[in-house]
Design goal:
alpha/beta; Enolase-like, domain 1; TIM Barrel; 2 domains; ten-stranded mixed β-sheet; four-stranded antiparallel β-sheet
Length: 376
């Protein structure tokens, strides 16, 4: 019976090579919190999350002061009970945000540890609804200084040339007319048959504004509109979903099965983009995925393709992995020792036990990561 002997954690700050913008914010660097959970038989599981462009130390404090001590000496196979212990301990500190991210990465590390102990890739340990490969979309189309519509078109055409039949672009920074033209150029570059996802990153605060943009986007036949409003504004998500033919997708910074159920009860999302590093870990992801399936709602998880490739392969109502072909935006890629392979727009499932990769310790150290350990 493997017992958890130690929990280590570190925070890394990784600058972006180019300042990158969304509709509502600009990012110059990303901070990641990393963990290792080691059992008394020497097996090691890893977890990680995005801690924002600053203050990821908040996540680390929750791990160090609140959660990790609860795990030491516990049976790692009792992962559902350990989730409940952590969640209850965190009730007064935050059932979402940084504290839930801390729960998420510890839970994910325990799942990774258990899959490694079983000698199975994580997706097979979870049940394997797919095998060999899973579909992915190329995520890009960010606002970068000097990037023209023609530059965007070349970027998207490059993804299609690599075999991707679905791509995503950022929207919402310009006015409806200029944004409509930007989307027209994008659609022309990728052709009529490639899916075009749109990500507004919480750009709008009222329904009339959102509808003005959607009327400009609709001629380009988008596959979805992502995060049109604040994640707390579920009512407007539902209203927009009733007034545009474009499916509404959201959930990437949502946490807990209860909020996701409210979102689906109100018709605020036809596609859930839950993130296992945010929503409560793999344990909570499983519960949300099962509930979504009963609503006829599909999943296309947000970010961290190294983890979500396993979850898309494990759940029958999961459709796409969000894949970043380079390290310019998801620069977490620089902190790991192995990259996912893809062919014809599909990600090849890892065959090594667990997640199938580890941290690149030299890179972790180079980006300021200093491991601290809590042990028996």
């Amino acid at each position: 019976m493997p017992r958890i002997a130690s929990v280590s954690f570190a925070v890394c700050r990784v600058p972006l090579d180019k300042v990158t913008s969304f509709s509502t914010r600009t990012v110059t660097a990303r901070e990641y919190c990393l963990v290792k959970v080691v059992s008394d038989d020497g097996a090691e599981g890893i977890g990680f999350c995005y801690g924002g462009h600053k203050a990821a130390r908040i996540v680390a404090v929750a791990i160090e002061d609140l959660l990790a001590p609860l795990l030491i000496g516990q049976d790692s196979l009792e992962v559902e009970r350990l989730w409940e212990v952590m969640y209850r301990a965190a009730l007064l500190h935050g059932r979402a945000g940084s504290v839930m991210r801390a729960i998420s990465i510890l839970d994910n590390a325990i799942w990774d540890l258990n899959a490694k102990s079983a000698g199975l890739p994580l997706y097979r340990y979870l049940g394997a609804a797919a095998k060999d490969t899973v579909p992915a979309y190329a995520s890009g189309g960010y606002y970068v200084e000097g990037k023209t519509n023609e530059g965007l078109a070349a970027e998207l055409a490059g993804y299609v040339a690599q075999g991707f039949d679905a791509v995503k672009v950022k929207v919402g920074q310009g006015d409806p007319r200029s944004e409509g033209e930007r989307l027209r150029v994008a659609r022309e570059a990728i052709g009529p048959d490639v899916l075009l996802m749109l990500d507004a990153n919480n750009a709008w605060s009222d329904l009339p504004t959102a509808l003005a943009y959607m009327r400009a986007y609709e001629p380009s036949n988008p596959y979805w509109i992502e995060e049109p409003f604040s994640p707390d504004d579920i009512e407007n998500h539902a209203r927009l979903a009733r007034l545009t033919p474009v499916p509404v997708a959201t959930g990437e910074i949502e946490a807990g099965r209860w909020r996701f159920k409210e979102l689906m009860d109100k018709g605020g999302a036809q596609i859930l983009q839950l993130d296992a590093c945010v929503c409560g870990g793999i344990s909570e992801f499983r519960r949300i995925a099962a509930t979504a399936d009963s609503y006829g709602v599909t999943l296309s998880p947000h970010w961290f393709h190294d983890l979500h490739v396993h979850l898309v392969a494990a759940f029958p109502n999961a459709r796409y992995v969000e894949f970043f072909p380079d390290d310019q935006v998801l620069n977490f890629r620089r902190l790991v020792d192995r990259q996912l392979e893809f062919k014809d727009g599909r990600l090849i499932l890892p065959t090594a036990p667990g997640l199938g990769f580890g941290f690149d310790e030299e890179a972790v150290s180079g980006y300021g990561g200093a491991w601290a350990t809590i042990a028996t």
